[in-house]
Amino acid sequence: MNQLRPWLYIGKYIDTLDQQRLTRYGIRAMLQLADLVEQPEITSLYLPVDDFEPLPFNVLRQGVDFVRDAKQQGHTILVACGAGINRSTTPTTLAITLCVLSGRCTISKDTGTLRTITKPKNWRTMARHTSLSHILLHKNQDIPNA
């Protein structure tokens, strides 16, 4: 499980099973893209998404709305897929981007990094799935507020 923002983590399916770890990191909401795992006192949304396939807009919108609503409620969120490096990157990247564009978040050299989680074996597959991860969120790249 990797922390992207104080309120947002990205992880893999196995992370959703570890109740002690979820509690330790303060996870109160999970967007799950691999399989549904219910944990006590954690709000979950499961969106069935096939790996290496583009996310349909309505599914992406549901996921981003869930993340946004959970953040507004003060929850710490985990977005998880099978391995934590493909399907989960699209909603997390878009959620962070929208937060930045709305002026509620900033990304600077000190805080912006997704590089450790966006190293798929096949960049072409990743680019087809989401180009935002590669373009927007590399370490040491400033993204101005809108």
Question: How is this structure best described in words?
Answer:
The chain has helices at residues 13-17, 19-24, 57-72, 89-101, 123-129, 132-136; strands at 2-5, 8-12, 27-32, 43-46, 76-81. The chain is an alpha/beta fold. Mean pLDDT is 77; it is low at 109-146. The protein has a five-stranded mixed β-sheet.
Radius of gyration from the alpha-carbon trace, in angstroms: 14 Å
Fourth CATH level, the homologous superfamily: Protein tyrosine phosphatase superfamily
The assigned structural class equals alpha/beta
Low-confidence stretches: 109-146
CATH topology: Protein-Tyrosine Phosphatase, Chain A
Share in helix? 25-40%
CATH class category: Alpha Beta
Query: Helical element count?
Result: 6
What attributes does this structure have?
5 strands, disordered C terminus, globular, 146 residues, alpha/beta, 17% strand, Protein-Tyrosine Phosphatase, Chain A, 5-stranded mixed β-sheet
Task: Present the secondary structure layout.
Blueprint: E1 2-5, E2 8-12, H1 13-17, H2 19-24, E3 27-32, E4 43-46, H3 57-72, E5 76-81, H4 89-101, H5 123-129, H6 132-136
Parallel strand pairs: 2-5, 3-4, 3-5
Antiparallel strand pairs: 1-2
Helix pairs in contact: 3-4
